[in-house]
UniProtKB/TrEMBL annotation:
Stated name of the protein: Putative 4-hydroxy-4-methyl-2-oxoglutarate aldolase
Catalytic activity as recorded in UniProt: oxaloacetate + H(+) = pyruvate + CO2; 4-hydroxy-4-methyl-2-oxoglutarate = 2 pyruvate
Molecular functions (GO terms): 4-hydroxy-4-methyl-2-oxoglutarate aldolase activity; metal ion binding; oxaloacetate decarboxylase activity
Domain of life according to the entry: Bacteria
Family stated for the protein in its record: Belongs to the class II aldolase/RraA-like family.
Function: Catalyzes the aldol cleavage of 4-hydroxy-4-methyl-2-oxoglutarate (HMG) into 2 molecules of pyruvate. Also contains a secondary oxaloacetate (OAA) decarboxylase activity due to the common pyruvate enolate transition state formed following C-C bond cleavage in the retro-aldol and decarboxylation reactions.
One Pfam family here: RraA-like
E.C. number(s) listed in UniProt: 4.1.1.112, 4.1.3.17
Binding site for Mg(2+): D111
Amino acid sequence: MSNYSHAQKKISPALLCDGMQKLGIAKNGAMDASLMPIDEQKFMVGTACTVDTEDGDNFPIHVAIYQGKPDYVLIVAGKNSMERAYLCDLLARAADAVGLSGIVVDGCVRDKLGLKELAIPVYSKGIM
C-alpha cells in the first residue's frame, strides 16, 4: 500500500470530502447516496479503476478483476441496471485475491451473506 493510501485511511471521509471541495472536485468526491455498503463495518481507500458495462453483463468485470492491481478500487459503471446482478461472492473473492481494495457497483449484486464473509468491501445500489 502506498504511503498516500495509508495516510488516507487515517482521515475521516468527511475531512477527505472537505479537501476535495477545496480542490473543486465534483460532488466533493462523494459517492451517490444510493450506493450502500454490503457490510457497514468495512471501508475502502484506493485509486479508482472504472469498468463500463450494461444490461447485467459481467464479462467486462471478469476482465477488469483479473487485470486489477493491488490497492485499486473497481468501479462498475453499470448504468443503474437493476434487472440482473453484476457481481456475486465468487467474483468478489477473485477481486480480493488479486488485492483490490474494494468494489463499487452501479447496479445490483447477489450473494449478500457470501459477500459479507469476505474481507473486501462492496457497495451497490441493490441486492438480489
